[in-house]
Amino acid sequence: MSEPLFEKIALVGIGLIGSSLARVIGREGLARHVSIATRSPETLARAEELKLGDSYTASAAEAVRDADLVIVSVPVGSSGAVAAEIAPALKAGAIVTDVGSTKGSVIAQMAPHMPANVHFIPGHPLAGTEKSGPDAGFADLFENRWCIFTPLPGTDPQALEKLSEFWRRCGSNIDTMDPEHHDMVLAIVSHLPHIIAYNIVGTADDLEAVTKSEVIKYSASGFRDFTRLAASDPTMWRDVCLHNKDAILEMLARFSEDLASLQRAIRWGDGDKLFDMFTRTRAVRRSIIDAGQEIDAPDFGRQAIEHPAKT
Ligand SMILES: NC(=O)C1=CN([C@@H]2O[C@H](COP(=O)(O)OP(=O)(O)OC[C@H]3O[C@@H](n4cnc5c(N)ncnc54)[C@H](O)[C@@H]3O)[C@@H](O)[C@H]2O)C=CC1
Ligand SMILES: O=C(O)C(=O)Cc1ccc(O)cc1
């Protein structure tokens, strides 16, 4: 095991992502001390039972005291409150980062609270599952996944490199982009698929009153795939929808237009149009496989991130 990268890492929020970080930090020996803070006493007690860190507190401010790296892993709607709470306790020179699924809103909420003598570097690991809470995490979650940074202008290159090295040692590949671009790309490759899944499962659930248990009894694998996404954490996804509103609405508008065109082709029996479109979409999956990407693991849209101009 190599030298720890940091003396003390503070994890604020210890759900799926925070606890996966705790596990990989422990496995790779990335810190001498890991302090854990989370709001709910039950979650904190569970984190301690699971021995995820070295110290445990309900106070985020207490956890970040003397920390060289602070990772905020809470639903995006809570990031402003956490930033306000930790700001007075941050050590000079500390790196503060987050893992939120939206970036523009997290920056708007957190940056105003950050003291000038800390390095605030927003981040987003493109790795996750539909599960939540400290039991759901695992050390391999970030292996071979992307971690995207959306650094603010003037970010210290050494701090960025140190944080990049941290994520590389967690198994991730690093990319950087501006927050607006991140939010637009993630709206189509991650946020819309979840919204569509919530919607289709909701529609089926409404129908179930009519069809009794047929929706469950005959659910084919296509529908089952949607139910996995639609089982994702309601608080997290409510916050994503509210905090990436503009990009999601833009993508939903395009999606609805395309859906209407598909609907029209079905109504008018335009088989050529259906065939052409289904052929085009089949090629998208082929190109993901050809790019050597694991397709059956929970993953989404690396292709779109690598080639954001392709629509
Ligand atoms: N679940 C996923 O697949 C992925 C999630 N993310 C992002 O990671 C962040 C965390 O998500 P998960 O770990 O999945 O959620 P989770 O629900 O498993 O865990 C959230 C944690 O935050 C704590 N928390 C909530 N509000 C808090 C507050 N004000 N102060 C302190 N702790 C607070 C909760 O007690 C819990 O420990 C979110 O911003 C999400 O957008 C990013 C990549 C993947
Ligand atoms: O479970 C899945 O398929 C996911 O897509 C997980 C996920 C959810 C949100 C993110 O910001 C990143 C990854």
UniProtKB/TrEMBL annotation:
GO terms for biological process: tyrosine biosynthetic process. PROSITE patterns: PDH_ADH. It comes from the Bacteria. Gene3D superfamilies: 6-phosphogluconate dehydrogenase C-terminal like domain, NAD(P)-binding Rossmann-like Domain. InterPro entries: 6-PGluconate_DH-like_C_sf, NAD(P)-bd_dom_sf, PDH_C, PDH_N, Preph/Arog_dehydrog, Prephen_DH. Pfam families: PDH_C, PDH_N. Its EC number is 1.3.1.12. Pathway: Amino-acid biosynthesis; L-tyrosine biosynthesis; (4-hydroxyphenyl)pyruvate from prephenate (NAD(+) route): step 1/1. PANTHER family: PREPHENATE DEHYDROGENASE, PREPHENATE DEHYDROGENASE [NADP(+)]. This is prephenate dehydrogenase. It comes from Mesorhizobium zhangyense.
